[in-house]
Amino acid sequence: MPVTQDPLLKRLILWAERVTKIDLSYLLKGGVWLVLGQVSISGLAFLASIAFAYYVSKDDYGTYRFLLSVFWSLTAFGLSGVPTALARAIARDDHGAYWHALKLSLLGSIPMALISFGMSAYYALNANPLLAYGCLVIGILGPFMQAAYLYGAVLEGKKAFRENAIAGILLNLVPTLGLIALMLILHEPVAFLATFLGASVLTGTLISIYTIRKFHISFTRKTNAEFHSLGLHLSAMNILFTLSQQADKLLIFHALGPVNLAIYTFAVSIPDQLRAILGNLETLSFPKFAKRPVHEILPTLGKKLWGLTGIIILIVICYIVAAPFLFSILFPAYMDSVFISQVYALSLIPVGSVVPLSLLQAHAAKRELYIFNTVIPILQIFTLWMGILFMGLLGAILARVLTRFATMALSLILVKTYALRHS
What we know:
Elements: H1 7-20, H2 24-55, H3 58-74, H4 82-91, H5 97-108, H6 110-125, H7 129-141, H8 145-148, H9 151-157, H10 161-183, H11 189-214, H12 225-256, H13 258-278, H14 280-290, H15 294-330, H16 338-344, H17 354-362, H18 366-421
């Protein structure tokens, strides 16, 4: 018997919903699958990290992480806002948007390919064959990544949390197994990159084909005109934001070298996995926000965020205490990452900012989103640059923590601004 059919538990859930103003029935229905999926994905990430820590040198791992950051940075120059616009369209039963999203994703990836080939030529001319081959791989495989991942937007819009969780597990399982098998044979950063990108594109494509058939996404030229407008606007907003998300790795690699990048990557790995699990609130809230006016959402938003923040503070305290023990077991070669990892855990406290940001995206609040996606990236890039320049790895960590708290504050201000404009 499902837990929500138990009479006593059902009454308890209804009482808790009245007290907290949170739709717990909805969270239990979708959140369980999302959390299960993210926990599984985090487990796979830990498995890959443990293998890298034991079998790959810090220098090779740092170079691989740098090449990955180059790839993700170059996605900024494509139409990266299309998946969010697609999720909103699917939530409103606009199935025709999928095929337009697929076309835009492929065409929008052309700049990535051109820039990657240009970087490859530059590194080759400067006698750096390792990075030259890495950029060549990005130019060949990278342009297909977003198109292969569009299934996620469909499943999010359909509130198909079970399917989304299973797909996410598969999408991480195949590349992880490929990387682990490869590192037992050779330790080449470019080979790691090609395996990750190739396996991800292939798996994502197969999942997308399955999703199209399951939800009967038939080809049609008709779609809401707002889809294109929103997709283009979100893509423009994402340029600075995407670059800022990779700025730490790029700056550390060039300023401090690949070994320090490897140390930094392991320092942020566990907190970032915890943040990914908590970040499922965005996936859960987006389709509901898309169908409700802001004046219905705002009255209980603050109370929900304060309750969430209290729970996260307890999680942060537990992690800070447990970090030395966890690293001694999982990553013994990276014990010098422990202290900065404990400091970085503080950045989890304002993770509730994903909720007001999801509200702004669901309501296509272009003005507020432009402000957010300009101010926060500039702040993060500037603080990272100054932090790394004067304090090294600890400076990078402190910059990330500061930016996360600024994200929470600004997102709440912008939600209130949007509500006032539409009152």
